[in-house]
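Q: May I have one protein plus its fold?
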Amino acid sequence: MYNRLRAGVAIYNDGYYHAAHDAWEDYWLELESGTDDERLLHGLIQFTAAVYHARERNWEGATGLAESAFEYLADLPADYRNLRLQPIRAALEELATDPEVVERRSPPRIEHEGSAPTLADLDVETTAIAAVVLAPELGFDAEPVERAWTYAQRDLEAGEDDSRFISLLFDFVREEEHRGIIYRRLTGHVDRRRAREEDVEGLF
C-alpha cells in the first residue's frame, strides 16, 4: 500500500494527473469495499480524475467526480495514511461548484509524510512503480520497463547495488528532456540481458 500510494502521489504532484490513478487502481480493486483504505484510494482516484477532466474543460465530468470523491474521503481522519486530506477535501468542494478554478490556479499538491513528494523524491521501488505507470502514458511500451525492474530486483538480490537497470529506471522517471534516449538505452540493455539469459538456458 505504502509504495503504491507514494508513487501515485509523486506522479500527480509532477503534473501527470491522468496517470496517477494507475499507480493505485490495481491495488484498490483488490480491497474490500467500504474499508478505509478502499475509500482512500477510491477518493484519490476520483480526485485526480476530476482534476484531469477540469483541465480538459469537461466541466460536467469534473464536478460529478469531485462530488463523489469528496464523499469517499469525507469521513477519513485528516491525516490518514500520513496524507493531508483536508486540502484535498477543500479542493474537491471548490471543484464541485467551480471546476474552472483550475484555469485560474494550479491544483493543490498532495502532501504525504510532511512534504509534497515528486518523482525526484522516490526510492528504488516507488520509482519502478512510477516508471511502469508513466511508460504507456507517455507513449512507450511498458514491457521493457517492467522487465528492467525484474532484472534490477535480481541484481539487488545478488548484492549488486550499482545495477545499470536501477540507474536507467531512475533516469527514465526523472529526466523528462532525455526520456526518449534513456528509454532506448534501457530497451537495449533489457534485450541484451534477455539474450544472455536465453543463451544460458539453451545450454541446459
Q: What stands out?
A: The chain has a mean pLDDT of 90. The radius of gyration is 19 Å. The chain has two domains: 2-119, 123-202. The longest helix spans residues 179-202.
